[in-house]
């Protein structure tokens, strides 16, 4: 697994906590908003204010899968298996996802992935 810097403490972080930080960072960054890295991020910002109906859930899943499969986002160490929205409020989505770690094939569940716009 990759190692990096914790966004809150500045300390070195690795493993699942760093993976969750990287996923949240990519999902919360609107695609095209970073100068010099226009391909980084996700398109979740496009749907954050839509009505919550079955189509909304499908759009969130599609946007999540797009962000995970985008090589610029650097999330090539996991594969998405399932996604559940656990809380949807104004300008905020919280989800729980099941992934497969590609380095060892182990399944993991990640709770509390928050997307805010």
Which structural class best describes the helix and strand composition?
alpha+beta
Q: Roughly how many Å is the radius of gyration?
A: 14 Å
Strand arrangement across the biggest beta sheet: 3-4-5
Helix count equals 2
Which sheet architecture does the biggest sheet show?
A: 3 strands, antiparallel
Helix content: 25-40%
N-to-C series of helices and strands:
EEHHEEE
Provide a quick synopsis of the model.
The protein has 117 residues and is α+β, with helices and mostly antiparallel strands. It has 2 helices and 5 strands; from the N terminus they run E-E-H-H-E-E-E. The chain has helices spanning 15-28, 54-69, and strands spanning 3-5, 12-14, 78-89, 92-101, 107-116.
List the helices and strands and how they pair.
Blueprint (H helix, E strand, L loop, with lengths): L2 E3 L6 E3 H14 L25 H16 L8 E12 L2 E10 L5 E10 L1
Antiparallel strand pairs: 1-2, 3-4, 4-5
Describe it.
This protein has 117 residues and is α+β, with helices and mostly antiparallel strands. It is built from two helices and five strands; from the N terminus they run E-E-H-H-E-E-E. The chain has helices spanning 15-28, 54-69, and strands at 3-5, 12-14, 78-89, 92-101, 107-116. The strands form two sheets. Strands 3-4-5 form a three-stranded antiparallel sheet, covered by helices on one side. Strands 1-2 form a two-stranded antiparallel sheet. The longest helix has 16 residues, at 54-69.
């Amino acid at each position: 697994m990759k190692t990096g810097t914790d966004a809150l403490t500045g300390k070195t972080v690795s493993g699942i906590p760093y993976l969750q930080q990287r996923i949240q960072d990519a999902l919360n960054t609107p695609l095209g908003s970073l100068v010099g890295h226009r391909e980084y991020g996700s398109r979740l910002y496009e749907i954050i204010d839509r009505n919550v109906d079955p189509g909304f859930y499908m759009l969130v899943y599609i946007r999540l899968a797009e962000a995970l499969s985008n090589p610029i986002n650097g999330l090539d160490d996991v594969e998405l298996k399932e996604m559940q929205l656990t809380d949807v409020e104004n300008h905020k989505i919280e989800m729980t996802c099941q992934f497969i770690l590609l380095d060892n094939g182990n399944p993991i569940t990640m709770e509390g992935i928050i997307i805010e716009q």
